[in-house]
Specification:
By secondary structure, the protein is of the alpha/beta class. 38% of the residues lie in helices and 22% in strands.
Length: 235
């Protein structure tokens, strides 16, 4: 599936591209653009299956761009728009203009991927996205259903807990700093209290038995962050 990303903020643009690359789905291809004119020029030369659009741009607003896409170009694909505004009127205006779904900033990677998967399913693009489950011993991660099971038993997790657990399971043995976790799970670069992250980690240890019971331990690294790793077996 070929995704076009239109975002004028370079940090947000890199974040969106990184979030989709971290999906670990080889059939996802992303091209990113800073201006609406750049995206429209690219669309005259190549085909996109889905678009992610920032609603406020330096050379066009979302409504103008949606009108150009839907009415002038007759582009039928799904559009996910992103906005920093929490206003209901903006959301209604975007959807009435032809957008299919929306997300408000800060963006959370797992939610972004879930919305894209849902749009792809509706548009019949699922053949291009793998929803295969991933097994890690007693743990099974099902990205398409946003669920994690332990010994075939589903564990009830909040959206944020799922995102955090999926991050660790998908990168087993990798050390993440607190800043890494903030950016990849909370979608922010500003500092949150250490207690916020530590509280979520504590919940995961209990809910998913990340204490080594089933072979995986979620360990803290002093003054740095966390890593999910295989439990060392005493000999």
């Amino acid at each position: 599936m070929h995704i076009g990303i239109l975002e004028d903020d370079p940090i947000q643009r890199r974040f969106l591209v990184s979030a989709l690359k971290d999906w670990d789905e080889p059939r996802i291809q992303c091209d990113s653009f800073e201006r609406a004119s750049e995206l429209l020029k690219a669309m005259s030369k190549q085909t996109f299956d889905l678009l992610i659009l920032d609603w406020f741009l330096p050379d066009a607003d979302g409504m103008q761009l949606m009108k150009r896409l839907r009415q002038d170009l007759g582009w039928p694909g799904p559009v996910l728009f992103i906005t920093a505004s929490q206003g209901e009127n903006d959301v209604v205006m975007a959807l009435e203009s032809g957008a299919d779904d929306f997300l408000t900033k800060p963006i959370r990677p797992a939610e972004l991927r879930a919305r894209i998967f849902a749009l792809a399913r509706r548009a019949g693009l699922n053949k291009d996205i793998s929803d295969a489950t991933q097994a890690f011993g007693a743990y099974t991660l099902a990205p398409s259903h946003h669920t994690i099971t332990v010994n075939n038993t589903p564990v009830e997790l909040t959206a944020r807990e799922y995102e955090l657990a999926a991050l660790f399971l998908s990168h087993l043995g990798q050390l993440f700093s607190r800043q890494n976790i903030l950016e990849m799970v909370w979608g922010v670069r500003a500092d949150l209290s250490t207690r916020t992250i530590d509280t979520h980690i504590s919940r995961l240890r209990k809910k998913l038995s990340f204490d080594g019971t089933y072979g995986l331990q979620l360990k803290s690294v002093y003054k740095y962050g966390y890593r999910l790793e295989h439990k060392e077996v005493a000999v």
